[in-house]
Amino acid sequence: MISRRQLIQTAVASAAALTLPIAQAQTAWPNAPVKIIVPFTAGGASDLLTRLIAERLTSKFGQNFVVENRTGAGGNIGMEAVRNAPPDGNTISSATIGTLSINQFLFSKMSYDPVRDFEYASMIWENCNVLVVSPQHPAKTAQEFLAWAKKQPKGVTFGSAGVGTTPHLAGALFGVRNDLKALHIPYRGAGQSMPALMAGDTDFAIDNIASYMPLIKAGKVKALAVTSTERWPTLPEVPTMAEVGIKDFIITSWGAFVLPKGTPAAIVSKLSDAIKEIAADPAMQKRFLEGGARTVATSPQETFAFAERERVKWKSMVEISGAKLD
Q1: If you placed Cys at 54, which of 65, 87, 164, 325 could pair as Cys (CB 3.0 to 4.6 Å)?
Q2: Structure letter (DSSP) for residue 98
Q3: Which architecture characterizes domain 33-126+253-321 according to CATH?
């Protein structure tokens, strides 16, 4: 007769046998090529920075990390693809401030929920925006620009790459904070908004520093202030918004790796630890700065909490701008 103790031992052994392959798969990750979906076009800051990390992950794990651009609907299509992928660690989203903390306030309906549909692994990069004017503009400082702007009877104009972009929202907030009549001029991408600023067709922009750095260095636009907490490493001569008297105007763009909901915690943690190692490498830090950004690494819990704080801030900014994308 089989004793109660033997029955319990048999049950425990059977359960262990069932869970062993799962545990082994998690420990062995990655054991197949990993797809990193960038929900934006190739060549942009998010795409280029993601490819740098993918290259290092491939080298570290000896398994291919392949970047795939899945564009459309402000990044929503790419995020939906990751949401629907198997939660096995083989599909990652290179998400951004827009897809995780802004889009839900711009679109009345979305095919994914940034809070409930993903496992957050780590932030991967951040950069700031910069207040820029044309080289012909009379203002040499942010204070001079504000004094000039307040004297314009018809107000001032600012451009962006489109409605709902961070340059649009930042420009709208800048106008409200400084009691300016600021009219937004949306363009079809940076390829149109940047030449318009250089030509003086718009009065200012508060746009991504990575996009404008070549123009700043070439003297084709003037940088008056940055939106980071401290002066930007590759633009040390340009003051922060706080230094020019504009308080609480911290605006950063950022990216993070998230995976489908239900991806095992062991895999998420392993990816997060790898990002931390990569971000600490001085050579990688240099390459990121050359691309206009800084390397960042955070724990899964820190990443989720940061995105949540950003939602509170950007919800307010979207309301101020009145922006809607549907």
Answers
A1: 65
A2: I
A3: 3-Layer(aba) Sandwich (3.40)
